[in-house]
Amino acid sequence: MTSSSPPIPTESVPTVHETFPNKEETHLDHTRHNYKFSTHGVTRIFTTDSHVHIGEQSFERQEFNRAFEGYLNPGYSPAPSRKFANPVPVGVAGFSLTLFVLSLLNLGARGGPNPAALAGLMWFYAGAIELLSGMWCIVIEATWAGTLLSSFGGFWIGYGCIVVDVFGLAEAYDGYDLTQLLGMWILAWAIFSTMMWAMTFKSTWPLFILMGAVVFCLLTLSIAQFVSVNHATAAKGLTRAGGVFGIIASVMGWYVTYEGICSKENAYWVPPVLLMPGAVTSLED
């Protein structure tokens, strides 16, 4: 909140009972103002380039961020106190590109070669760079984004070690035990992703779809590992399904990356923010 701000324009505003009788809450867009109607009356919301005026209260415009997938921000929150570039796009880009290529292999593209060839992507682009991106999200006080990106940075580093057998798992376990171990490992990540997905139900549609696709991708791949020995045909179908969900997640991840970078100054098309029903858009919601 700030003590000095541009003067609030004055005008006569009818009460809620005069304008919308018996209406508990609604919103009316005006060319210069937004009005929030509630049982307590009408609150005028007037915005300028630098401030947001809510009734008789005045706030600096940059003090608040609504849900926006370009920052992996799942809800209305205070803006960061530190001024840094947005670290989200590079982290999401690394995740999306690596998942896209891995999903093509899961779909059987070009014969589905050994994913060990992707170790470089997993360790460095989706691993180290995504981990660093998550740490910078912590610096700019974006807890949800920092938790998500840092965790999946660790996921990719770990998975890269598994596919090239850095720890000798293939020698330590027989075929059945190894598939069960991998199934449990991927299932744990599916549970974590479900928890993070649950926090996007009041955010934006792209972020909700992205996390939902990640959840189902991991879940189907986990089940595929569990049944791979005794039900090879079913496992192949589940792996392909995981590839489809992975492609969807990759495309949505690139969409989020684009939104986090684009502006009216560098792009002809700036996507609108598609808020979900129930998304918090003001301090009074």
TrEMBL record:
It comes from the Eukaryota. This is Uncharacterized protein. It comes from Geotrichum galactomycetum. The lineage of its organism: Eukaryota, Fungi, Dikarya, Ascomycota, Saccharomycotina.
